[in-house]
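Quick start: what a row looks like.
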Amino acid sequence: MSGTVRRRLVSKDGRSNVRIDNVEGMVKLYLHDIWTTVVDMKWRYKLTLFVSTFLGTWFIFGVLFYLIAMSNGDLGKAPESNHTPCVMNVATLTGAYLFSLESQTTIGYGFRHISEECPLAIFTLVVQLVVTGLAEIFVTAAFLAKLARPKKRAETIMFSQLAVVCRHQGKLCLMVRVANMRKSLLIQCQLSGKLFSPYVTEEGEKILLRQDPVDFQLDSSQECPFLLLPLTFYHVLDKSSPLVSLTAESLKTRDFELVVTLNATMESTAATCQSRTSYLPQEVRWGYEFVPLLFSTPGGGYITDFEYFDKVQESSDSSLLQKSEMEKLQLEEEYRKE
């Protein structure tokens, strides 16, 4: 087992490792939901879209005003002639582009302006202001939506690198530690888990990843009112648990991935926040417990030392270690008999 590659469905920092491939009409699907596509864009693409929206609309409507001036015979006319141009002082494409820019940004220098003799130019100006106004609203809203997304807030939620199995209140439990790295509270916190493992049905069908729910608790409740201190959530390894057959020795041969997800509400914005991580069998320590990291101060307060956040120590319950040794001796005895 040491030489095999352990695949992860979810990375330690919560990113999905599933690649979507061979989907017909993927571009059409993304364009159909253009809002989500734009919001999910990376910042470099979003900035490119933002700049391109302005430069593109300025240039497109500048070309339209230039064509209007060309069709009206405004180009090449002497200033002293009796001909009234559609757009005053626009004789080149550059001038038309500057007029489009000044109109859309409402700069209005006064040098270039539309005359009353050309309804087509007036209609084009109205269309430009309406279309570009809607485009600016869309792009600006996409910027604000991406900034307001709680994705970055989820990055300030820390999970322990290891999970431990030890006794809690007389029950054998699997435990993970969670901490909020900001002073702003997370309220209505709930930790849930999914166990992904290969499975063979009674009919012989092989399922690559079977999903089983793994419920985590905090003391006597599944929900935490607020995440102020680093907390340890635990899952009881009883008959209803998909990990009921887990032992110290089976951890070396079991093939599974435990994905845990913390759902919480940000107190400052009331937005829902979700953070996740995963644990493989080699990241579960049997017979260990987390090292305490909360200490009291002489001033009557508390301090959390995150140097101990990921540290574990052997459990004070020696029966777990003895059981592990007994299982090891039993397996060695069976191997000798064979």
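That is the whole record. The chain has a mean pLDDT of 83. The chain has seven helices and 16 strands.
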